[in-house]
Amino acid sequence: MTDRNGLGVAWCAIAIVALLSSGCSSQPPTTTTTTQATEVKQPTLQTFDPPPLEKLLADHQWIERPVVDSLKLRREFEKDKKPLVSVAEALAMKNDSDKANEKIVGTLGLLPKDDSAVDFDASIVRRLQQEPKSLNPILTSSMSETEINNLTAFGLFSFDWQLNPFASWDTVKSWKASDDNLVDIVVMRDDLTWSDGKPITAHDVVYSFQTIMDPNIDVPAQRSGTDKIRWVHAYDNHTVAFFHKEPLVTNVWNVNFAVIPKHVYEPHRRSDPKLERDLDIDKQVVGGAYGFASRTRGQELVLQRRESYYRHNGKQVRDKPYFQEIRFKIMPDPNTSMLELQRGGIAEAELSPGQWQEQTNDAGFYQHNTKVRGSEWTFFYFGWNFNTPYFSDLKVRQAMSYAFHHDEMLKVHCYGLFEPCTGIFHPESWMMASQPKRPPQKQDLDKAEDLLDAAGWEFDPSLGVRAKTIGGKKVPFKFTMLVRNSADRVAICELLKQNLQSIGVEVSIAALETATLQQRLQSKQFEANFGGWGTGADPDTSENIWGSNQERNWGGYSNPKVDQLFADGRKENDRQKRGAIYAEIDRLTYDDQVYTFLYYQPSLYAFSKDMRGYMFSPRGPFHYGPGFSAIWQAAQ
Amino acid sequence: MVALVTIVLLFLVALCSPAIVGTKPIVCNYKGNLYFPCLGYFNPKWENPIFIKDKFRGVYPRSLKQKDAESWAVWPLVYQDPYRRVKADEWHGVPSSREMLDNPVQNHGKPSAHNFFGTTPYGVDVFAGMVHGTRIAVLVGFVSMGIASFIGITIGALAGYFRGWIDVVLSRLIEVVMCIPTLVLILALISVIAEPTVWHLMAIIGVTSWTSIARLTRAEFLKLREMDYVAAARALGASHVRIIFIHVLRNALAPVLVPISFGVAAAILIESALSFLGFGAPPPNPSWGNLLHLGQDHILGKMWWLVLFPGLGIFLTVLCYNLVGEGLQEATDPRLRQAGK
């Protein structure tokens, strides 16, 4: 799951990244804080002696796993699709209804008929929310870094827009798993080169795994997942085996990590063992489709297409990336990005609902751009800290949900663009496919008051608020709601404050900047918070939010049944049965009212009229395979 | 003179804000008792708890009639609220009810007969926000300058009266504090406080803006301590404290009022700037700077009223304080007075 608390793309934000798309992938930390403290000192890897390849191959039955060319997959998916309108019509349309949106995405979102339609010399300017902290793909932690690594980093695995995992045809020749699901063997292609001309080999994969697991290095996100791998071994330059600790379904995700060049980082780490310094931009060596050309800190980062990526020994061996150059401009302010869009200065930007509804309807916007939207499995919530006298009680949490004016929020604050959220998993996801749709929560102040009374929080005229006697002391019902200091989010908390005030509960709102907010949540120094979660590629990645004592379970929710179900879910191979397990987790967390669920936030994007090929996944238009690799600029 | 009148007016607006705009009655008779729910705008505790207990849910017009048909109430001049969106149905079932509409939201909230200065994107009335915002503006000006004057006058008086090493130390202290960029220091201090309130803000502005007051007081004391009447007082055996506060300070105070009056204007500007940057009083906070901040977020949505009215409010207030300061300067500076003649 992606944390949606942090630094925002216009309206909302992502701080910790879950997964990348075509190139490589990372998953959020799943380690508990308690074990992490000890982890730092002890080496996490225990040496493992892999058997010889012949013996390994003979000992098991082997199941072939999919190796997929994600662009080809897209082409096949689109094969029978006819554009709903002509390109000219789609470009002239205003996106003012679901129908219009369908027509625009269905026409402009298609891949090119053939290469002559593509302007391969195109340079695209994209917006970056903030300066990337590190360009090293294994140190990825923010949305900006993900965007960059998507294009530059090398990886063996990816997943499609329905979040099905596969090995990437661009890098892998074959992938098979042992019948006991404890070993994966991947044969890499032999036409892979780093941007400095050296070949990419299985030894780089082994080295990357060992670097990620090195306890001396502060790896923010990638270690979760890889920590479930026992060992990675290179049998030769192209054959690499992943040995797992347990036969988990999620092993297909655990092997998905970024690969860094051994011949660059090995010498570098002699002077910088903790990887605290980033390599200079001209010393960066990458294995992805684009390489680093230049960087002006605080302003822009320029990537260039790598000829050695798609050509090998004078022959084209992979799809030619669609852009000659990608310029990332660093633009924290959404107003600036809006003005740049109108000027034709940037080719794409995520929009806030306000921008979608108010600032992108006039000819000024449509002169250079069009806008599109798609559903995304990202939800927002009020989180309650279970370790407080108030929210340890289910009745109180239910009362909070009843007290909030959901309809007002959806209509006013969300501009009528968002769907109400009814649980931790999206109703369109495969986990919830067979479940009846839960009706959205409605405000009912009488019920909220009854619940509070029943929980012992009765109105105390002398205090002016509700209070309860706990351990002989009268505790007034006053709590602080933490929220990131953006006006739209604060306004939603103000609505809650108004609602609760009218039933005798006092809320103060602390609007904090991202770093402070993160720190307060992580140290569990809070009573309630407003935040959001994006989806991971697999529901198992959300264990670290709802499992007992898990790292991002800030509210301290603990339900042994949920823990058990997460453990079961990892081991269940049948997708339908697995889905039922996660649906049960969804039901339990909903019945426990872990959160007051608020709304799902869809992807809202503006694209320049020259751009084509965008398609939405539950993780937005870019973060899957092919994702951004499918975006192309039409030849004039 | 006009400036002085405007400031007095501002005070009155701040004091009477709940009576000018609000959704809580100024006075009401409910179940045989008199209540003043509008005081809740000053302090939520002053709003009688009976209204929460009786499930008024923050909506008075409808609830009053429903719960007690005999009740009566005197309403503020304008029925709008600085904290929440006012809805049409709040007057439902009240005989002879006023014509009401739901407050418009998003960018539909242009100034109108219902919302004089328009509404915010969330449907909160800007006029109500402005009127209640004067409280913060006035408070910030006075409290922070109160603190600043206290520190400034004390330090200036000590430095000027005792001279010698005390003067050297205090003067250096003044210089050091002057060197620190105020806004940066304030931002740093606010980030240290876990949950800053408007009172913290005032205190911080106060403790960082006393230097000009201190310098002027010191200069006045240096001059006045040599006067004959001070020597006379000393000869009579008056204590230092008595001489400083009874004899010298009274004579030094007139010119010191000038930087104080300018300081009030500066404090209001700083508070607006902080709110504008999103570091102001905690939400919901109907301060002028906060409204401006909203305006900046929505400037491309063509919501000009969110910028114009709070901007004008800040501009006029600061201008008035500066004019008053200038007036004081003219009145206390004999050279200027002579030049005027």
Description of the molecule:
The complex is a heterodimer of chains A (636) and B (341). In chain A, helix 21 (560-571) runs antiparallel to helix 22. The model of chain A is unreliable at 5-41 (pLDDT under 50). Chain A has 636 residues and is an alpha+beta fold. Chain A has 2 domains: 2-332 and 603-633, Periplasmic binding protein-like II (D-Maltodextrin-Binding Protein, domain 2, 3-Layer(aba) Sandwich), CATH 3.40.190.10; 379-600, Dipeptide-binding Protein, domain 3 (Roll), CATH 3.10.105.10. In chain A, strand 22 (458-460) and strand 23 (465-470) form a beta hairpin. In chain A, strands 1, 20, 21, 25, 26, 27 and 28 form a 7-stranded mixed sheet that branches. In chain A, strands 4-9-10-12-11 form a 5-stranded antiparallel sheet, with helices on one face. In chain A, strands 6-17-14-13 form a 4-stranded mixed sheet, covered by helices on one side. Chain B has 341 residues and is an all-alpha fold. Chain B has 2 domains: 21-125, no CATH class; 128-340, MetI-like (MetI-like fold), CATH 1.10.3720.10. In chain B, 62% of the residues lie in helices and 3% in strands. Chain B has 13 helices and 3 strands; from the N terminus they run αββααβαααααααααα. Chain B has helices at residues 2-20, 50-53, 60-67, 126-162, 164-179, 182-192, 198-208, 211-224, 228-235, 240-277, 288-297, 305-332, 334-340, and strands at residues 27-30, 33-35, 72-74. A 3-stranded antiparallel sheet of chain B has the order 2-1-3, with no helix packed on it. In chain B, a hairpin with a 2-residue loop joins strand 1 and strand 2 (33-35). The longest helix of chain B has 38 residues, at 240-277. Chain B is elongated, with a radius of gyration of 25 Å. Chains A and B meet through helix 12, helix 13, helix 16, helix 17 and helix 18 of A and helix 2 and helix 11 of B.
Tally of extended strands of chain A? Answer: 31
Strand content of chain B: under 5%
Q: Which value, in Å, is the CA radius of gyration of chain A?
A: 25 Å
Q: Roughly what is the average pLDDT of chain A, rounded to an integer?
A: 87
Chain oligomer state: heterodimer
Domain module count of chain B = 2
The CATH topology of the largest domain in chain A, please? Answer: D-Maltodextrin-Binding Protein, domain 2
Please bin the fraction of helical residues of chain A.
25-40%
How many structurally independent domains of chain A? 2
Physical arrangement of strands within the biggest beta sheet of chain B: 2-1-3
The coarse overall form of chain A would be: globular
CATH class of the largest domain in chain B: Mainly Alpha
Low-confidence segments of chain B: none
